[in-house]
Amino acid sequence: MAKYFIILSLLLAFCTATSHRLRRHAWHTLTPAQNSSYISAELCLMHTPSKLSLPGTTSRYEELQAVHQLEMMQWFGGDGRPQDGCITNGPFVNFTNHLGPAYAYTSHCVTRRFNETCSAQTAQVFVDECVAKGDWLGAWTCIEGKPHTGGHGGVGGLMLDAVVSPRDPLFYLHHTWLDKIWADWQVRDLPKRLSEMGGDNVQDEGNLPLPFPPRPDSIPKSTGADGDPGNVTTLEHVLNMYGNGPNRTIGEVMDIWDGVLRYEYVEPETGGY
Ligand SMILES: *[C@@H]1O[C@H](CO)[C@@H](O)[C@H](O)[C@H]1NC(C)=O
Ligand SMILES: *[C@@H]1O[C@H](CO)[C@@H](O)[C@H](O)[C@H]1NC(C)=O
Ligand SMILES: *[C@@H]1O[C@H](CO)[C@@H](O)[C@H](O)[C@H]1NC(C)=O
Ligand SMILES: *[C@@H]1O[C@H](CO)[C@@H](O)[C@H](O)[C@H]1NC(C)=O
Ligand SMILES: *[C@@H]1O[C@H](CO)[C@@H](O)[C@H](O)[C@H]1NC(C)=O
Ligand SMILES: [Cu+2]
């Protein structure tokens, strides 16, 4: 299968440790050939039949979304068309997804509704503000507030579905960017920030940025507290991969450089860190 130049975030947390670090490049620095490889890899996942028997899934791509759907409690084409929000161009124009909305299973196109007011919240000035925070709780809530929500709202459509937003391939670009903001915050105080974790492990449902429908009885409840002694997230917290790969603890994925993920970022300006 075509090479990934941008790894799919925690969804690839099951990558076995390799002797060399993988390198994550910024999308705008890819060559046309690398660009096509990445898009082909996503199309390949969309066209490869599912194998894990997760509810509603028909492809490997949907099995990755299922992790988000099941766990949630707490050149990609342009905007959608006015009448139904379906995208009208780009490589995913004919893609039919089968998970969602929320916990339902229906066949539908990729929908978007660009909103520049929301996108403005992803501006560099807000990112800089978050990266400057002195502790994890400050950085996390800051990232969640503007850069994270701004990306979901800025694209709109499927990206505004809190349960299955990974249905839009843009989700992975947005979230790998958020991963990088986290790493940018970490490198400002190493090694301390390779083990700094905290915050609620179950979302406070009264205080969500996106509408969040109740989970139906047919979907087993995730306790949210797997591995934690209480309701605070710890390094022992288990990331349930639902068979997409081995479960990992948060402690295992904190150090992107030398932990199980083992990758580094290639900065267009400096050549990487
Ligand atoms: C990336 O590839 C898509 C099609 O695969 C093409 O339309 C687009 O122009 C390419 N962009 C760049 C920057 O190479
Ligand atoms: C989408 O389907 C139409 C009709 O079959 C076809 O003409 C078009 O090339 C397809 N586009 C892509 C990007 O696969
Ligand atoms: C864009 O999002 C803002 C903030 O949520 C909202 O007030 C506004 O109505 C949206 N604009 C459009 C055109 O939907
Ligand atoms: C977490 O647990 C503590 C102590 O048991 C409790 O006081 C607090 O309300 C809980 N917080 C949440 C968000 O459930
Ligand atoms: C992954 O974690 C979940 C939740 O802790 C657990 O139910 C499941 O059995 C684990 N799967 C594997 C393969 O260890
Ligand atoms: Cu998100």
From TrEMBL:
Signal peptide residue numbers: 1-17
Provide the species name: Ophiobolus disseminans
Renumbered residue ranges of the record's region Disordered: 196-230
> Which Gene Ontology molecular function entries are recorded, alphabetically?
metal ion binding; oxidoreductase activity
Q: Note the PROSITE patterns from the entry.
A: TYROSINASE_2
Q: Where is the Tyrosinase copper-binding domain?
A: 168-179
Q: What keywords does the record list, in alphabetical order? A: Copper, Metal-binding, Signal
One Pfam family of this protein, by short name?
Tyrosinase
Q: What is this protein called?
A: Di-copper centre-containing protein
